[in-house]
Amino acid sequence: MPDAFRPFVPETLEVAEPAPVVEGSPDAVLVRRTMSAIGSVSDKVTSYFYALLFVRHPDLRPLFPPAMDAQRDRLLKALLTAAEHIDNTPVLVGYLQNLGRGHRKYGTRPEHYPAVGECLIEALAKYAASVWDKETEAAWVRTYTTISQVMIDAAAVDELRAPAWWQAEIVSHELRTQDIAVLTVRPDQPYPFLAGQYASLETPWWPRIWRHYSFASAPRSDGLLSFHVKAVPAGWVSNALVHRAQPGDVIRLGPPAGSMTIDHTRDSGLLCLGGGTGIAPIKALVEDVAEHGARRRMEVFYGARTDHDLYDIDTMLRLKQSHSWLEVRPVVDKDGLLQLPDAIRTFGPWTEYDAYISGPVGMIRSGVNALRGAGIPKERIRHDSVAELVAAG
Ligand SMILES: NC(=O)C1=CN([C@@H]2O[C@H](COP(=O)(O)OP(=O)(O)OC[C@H]3O[C@@H](n4cnc5c(N)ncnc54)[C@H](O)[C@@H]3O)[C@@H](O)[C@H]2O)C=CC1
């Protein structure tokens, strides 16, 4: 469909904005009633679920990180979010297929799913006792069976065409500021992806802890991949990548994911907002447009707290010099009075543009508001899932 933006299927369902479904199938109603009942004790459900799982199935313990506190409830949260959206089939199927493919890198096998389902349902029965009955249990069994089957099938299809993970050797490590590094890695086998996507990444120093990083370049003929990493407080993986990693170290990569990609069948202008290291996928998108040879108007707003934090401005200005269709506007915060999304209001009109936003979660949220205020409809604004970014810390 050349003239329409392909429907945006988020990689992760937005927990903050559940589908506005009040009614639904009988199973969905029972599932949602359970979810409301556990609302205030969800931490207890999580602890009990993992305790059951690891006591009954100790062989599953090595699939999870040694320290479970940081992301212990990611699996459970994903399952519960999926269950809550069980009636929203098109979005749910895309989400679950991605989840199933993404779980291959943890070593998840089809036979693990019943074990997880049994502990999930037992934990729910305990903490939603006030609303739990035979029908509710049957609804959860059906819902979980549907969810797990989509994940298992997607993993099986993926197994035929791609490895569960890739090893990648760091070939260059460049410290751009005290806490931002640009890393280039060489995967051990071809790594197909699209500009604007991201990968999950595991370092040798924090086994089984995976974090998402956007590719900072479009696919290259030499097969190398690059990432921009900022060391954030208490960020184990990011600190290791910035302050410890060196050329020669080997990391692991999960499969590419994300739908912040360009539809090259369209010819509308592209408005891009990149905040901090969020400029990385925007740079990849610029390279992607350059390679496709189409002279689409592209306007990049690159935001940072200070001049010094515009760590990739030289690259962006070089790209601007080489491409007449590209405009790059650095936006430095003015004592908190002007932030990146505000800057687009001075320019425009933007109604005919497709928009891309990448950066801190607060910036994505206010960026979406600013873009919608500038007349760009929601379905033409792309960004990675806020829920996923929050989970990634
Ligand atoms: N695909 C994506 O969406 C990507 C997201 N990121 C995320 O981007 C973030 C980058 O962090 P830093 O470099 O420390 O960014 P930062 O905190 O230095 O902020 C960068 C820019 O965003 C603006 N900003 C920050 N919070 C805002 C808010 N609440 N409302 C409006 N504008 C706001 C700032 O004014 C600044 O211009 C990380 O959290 C990283 O996870 C990084 C790469 C890709």
Automatic annotation (TrEMBL):
UniProt domain Globin: residue ranges: 29-156
Keyword Nucleotide-binding: no
InterPro entries: Cbr1-like_FAD-bd_dom, FAD-bd_FR_type, Flavoprot_Pyr_Nucl_cyt_Rdtase, FNR_nucleotide-bd, Globin, Globin-like_sf, Globin/Proto, MRET
Group of enzyme by EC: oxidoreductase
Residue ranges occupied by any FAD-binding FR-type domain in the UniProt entry: 163-263
Entry keyword Protein transport: no
Domain of life, per lineage: Bacteria
Keywords, in A-Z order: 2Fe-2S, Heme, Iron, Iron-sulfur, Metal-binding, NAD, NADP, Oxygen transport, Transport
Catalytic activity annotation: 2 nitric oxide + NADH + 2 O2 = 2 nitrate + NAD(+) + H(+); 2 nitric oxide + NADPH + 2 O2 = 2 nitrate + NADP(+) + H(+)
UniProt cross-references to CDD domains, sorted A to Z: Mb-like_oxidoreductase, O2ase_reductase_like
Matching Gene3D superfamilies: Globins, Nucleotide-binding domain of ferredoxin-NADP reductase (FNR) module, Translation factors
Enzyme Commission number(s): 1.14.12.17
Cofactor: FAD; heme b
GO-annotated molecular function: 2 iron, 2 sulfur cluster binding; heme binding; nitric oxide dioxygenase NAD(P)H activity; oxygen binding; oxygen carrier activity
Family recorded in the similarity comment: Belongs to the globin family. In the C-terminal section; belongs to the flavoprotein pyridine nucleotide cytochrome reductase family.
Protein name, per record: nitric oxide dioxygenase
Origin species: Streptomyces roseirectus
Species classification: Bacteria, Bacillati, Actinomycetota, Actinomycetes, Kitasatosporales
